[in-house]
Each structure stands twice: as C-alpha cells, then as structure tokens.
Amino acid sequence: RVSSDGKPEKFQPPPKPVIIDKQKQREERRFLSPEFIPPRGRTDPLKFYIERKDMIQRRKVFNIPEFYVGHILAVTTADPYANEKANRFVGICIQRGGKGLGATFVLRNVIEDQGVEICYELYNPRIQAIEVLKLEKRLDDNLMYLRDALPEYSTFDVNMKPVSRLDHEEVPVNKLQVRMKPKPWSKRWERPKYNIKGIKFDLPEKKMKEAQKWSQPWLEFDMLREYDTSKIENKIWKEVSEGLKN
Amino acid sequence: MMPIWTKSGKKHAVTLLKVQDCHVLKYISKEESGGKTSKLLVGGKNASPFSKSESAMEIFKEAGVPPKQKVTMFNVTDDAIIKPGTPLYAAHFRPGQFVDVTAKTIGKGFQGVMKRWGFKGQPASHGQTKTHRRPGAISTNKAAKVYRGKKMPGKMGNIYRTSMGLKVWRINTKHDIIYVNGSVPGHTNCLVKVKDSKLPTYKDCNKNPPFPTFFADGDEELPEDLYDEEIFQFTDPSVTYT
C-alpha cells in the first residue's frame, strides 16, 4: 500500500477494546431497606442512630433478604401453639410499612378459597426464617387492590419451590395488569390519588373521566412536601454496610 | 418510642429518655425548707444565660455550673445528700427498677367540654337545634347554684402530669438514655422529671441501686448497654419454644 505522501504508511495500532467492568456495575446497584430511612419530623437524630444500631445487630444474627412489594415470600415463625412449634406462611408481599424496629410487611395468600393476610414485623425475634421464593417487582408500591381482584391473582402454592435467579441482575418488573371483581371495591382504585398502574380497568370512559375530577395535579409541585432522601440514604448506606461487614 | 421484645416473644412499647447535662445545683436542709426531708435542687439541659433572671443565675454561679433550662426539687433522705455541682448520669437508674415520670402535657388550647372532659354531647339529627357539642345541664334545681369544680370548657393541657410505675427496661451509659415502659406525658424532646416510684407495690423493687448516685469518676466500669433480664437482646438467636 502506498499512502498519498509517497512515504510508507505509519503503523496504526488497533483500537483499544472497551472493557465493561461488570463487577463495578454490580457494586453500583445497592439496596437500602426502606425502614432505615428516618421519617421527616422533629425527633432527635440520635434516636434513629441508636435504632439503626439495634437493627444492624439483628441483621448480623438473622439474615433479612432484600425484597420489594410483589415478591413471594415464605416466613417461618415460632408459635407455642403449633404442632412443631413453628408456623410457615407463603404469600405475596402487598405492603411494606413502618420505620425503624417496628417495620412490617403484609403477606397475602388465598388458602382453600379464603383470602388470608398476615402482617409480620421484620425485627420480631420469633421469626425463624424469611425465604424469597420468587423475585419480581410490580408496577405499584402497594398491592392492596389484590383484595378486590379475582382470587386467582392472589393464590400461590404453599409448597412452591424457590425460583432460581442469577445474582447481580436487575430485579425483573412484572407488568401484569390485574382484572378486578365487579364493583363495589373496598377503595375506589380508579381515583388518581392511589396512582395504580397495575389494574386493567374495564370501566366505561365516563367513569374514568369522572374519577379524574379528584386529581390533585398541584401535589407534585408542592415544595413543602418535598423530602429529598438521597444524601441521607448515602450516609445511612455507608453506616449500614460498615456495620454489617464487622 | 420504640418496640422492645421479651424472651417469651411479647412486644412492649418503650419511650427513650435522654439525660442531658444534669447537675445538682443546691442543697436545702430540712430546717430551711420547713418540710419533713431535706431537698436537692437539680437542673437539666444547658440553656443560654441571656434569658435567665439575676436571682436564677446566682444559684448556677454558686454551683459552678452552666445555666439550666429546667430546675426541679427532689426530696432526699439525709444519707443521700450529694455535693452541689456533681453531674448526674443515666446509670443512676438500673434496669428492673420502677419509675415515675412527670412532665407538662401537650397544650391543646381552649377546648370544649367533649374533648376536655369526654362528655357525650347531643345527637347530630332528629330535631336538635344548634346543640351538638354542648354540656347540657350544669346543675340541679334544688342546688340553686353551680358547684365549684364543675366540668366546663377551658384551657386543656400544658399542666404537669405523672405516669406512675413505669418499668426501666434498658440503660445506655454511652449516650445516657433510659428506656422506660409505655408512654410518657409531653411532646417529643420535652423536659421530663424521672423519680423512683412511690407506689406501694414497687417499694422493694430497687435491688442495690447506685447510692447516692452513679459517679463517673468512680471505680465502677459499666458496659455500654445495661439490659433487664427478660429483654431479648439482638445478639441472641431467634426465640424458639420447646
């Protein structure tokens, strides 16, 4: 090959390969359980610090896995009145509430055509084990509408085997649109206040438009309601990860 | 307030009280005060000297202590007198003791008779004219007067009230925090007076408390957390029943 200048061509090294470091990507994805974030208020931060120390202490002894609303969990509790002194309940997590040591989560299942919801406390010492059977996030943070949905959406096999899952991957989001029983419901889920995206509304257009009358579009711009938790979360994440390493 | 679990698996709600810069301010002898026992003035939580009167500042100057926001009196027996200026710590109390907590209740302002005294009021409908939350009759015909102390609308709250017989579950000596069973009068971060319980059932419950008080520069070295025997500590494995 002869270049335009007439001199021999300069050696062009091949382009450097772009190495996507998957380990770094894995570290970037970190999960802080929502009960660690303190609520907005006039309480002394020392109280939250002491509560967090207790929570970290409990997590060192007993493993509380990472889970979101929509996961299917199996919880074994110690029960003095049960046959083998232990009680196992499988269900889908519909709600995670409470902050600090009193954090709770509600599991729902339909057993022999009877819907059952049990509210467990995360830090209750009677809980022997929490296993995550199936990981999947849903479109909403609160699945209370499953009470008014057809029972097939809340039934889960009690002897379900845990679904294997590759670690360090994004938690899959299930975009399931749930079908509801006929109205009346326990709450008017079509109203914008609940902001539900996981229901397939079969209501006429007129009703959906009427429900929009209760929308409050100014709420998202209300500055007094803003609670930016990013800095607090970073601090608490460092504290918690250091506490768990020891 | 926080939940706490016992070794049998029961849950109790607990209030956290912080002992913040408490010092003994003054000793008043029996003859001076004119009571049955001698008294000790104790102050808590440092405050700025600019909002204190001259006479109040005198007591703080004599004790050699920064000015305090709250000053209370404790009746003390003669063998429990402490020198003015000694700091008081949370380790003065031990888990398993019973305690009375006094504080000013949350002020609700001028309130009607239904909220203040729990009257039932009148029905909402069936012909009631402009009468739904009123007290109704205030006395009888024969009395021909209204008795003193008749429950009527007025300012509610912002008065001192005591919760008696509260169990101390846990003490944090590093941050000076007392974990007390149940709820306590007052809003969050309000100033509170904690005394040994005077209820007759708990007369013999104090087993070897630090007497007269816990001295930080003494020989005793306490662990960071002192727990009651029945508390489930988070270092233990989960509770099981056999």
Automatic annotation (TrEMBL), chain A:
The keyword Transit peptide applies. Residues 1-25 are annotated as: Disordered. Keywords: Mitochondrion, Ribonucleoprotein, Ribosomal protein, Transit peptide. SUPFAM superfamilies: Translation proteins SH3-like domain. Gene3D superfamilies: 2.30.30.790. It holds the Pfam family Ribosomal_L19. Its main location: mitochondrion. One of its GO terms (cellular component) is mitochondrial large ribosomal subunit. This is Large ribosomal subunit protein bL19m. The gene is Mrpl19.
Automatic annotation (TrEMBL), chain B:
Its main location: mitochondrion. InterPro entries: Ribosomal_uL3, Ribosomal_uL3_bac/org-type, Ribosomal_uL3_CS, Transl_B-barrel_sf. This is Large ribosomal subunit protein uL3m. It is found in: Mitochondrion. One of its GO terms (molecular function) is structural constituent of ribosome. It comes from the Eukaryota. Keywords: Mitochondrion, Ribonucleoprotein, Ribosomal protein, Transit peptide. One of its GO terms (biological process) is translation. GO terms for cellular component: mitochondrial large ribosomal subunit. Belongs to the universal ribosomal protein uL3 family. Gene3D superfamilies: Translation factors (2.40.30.10).
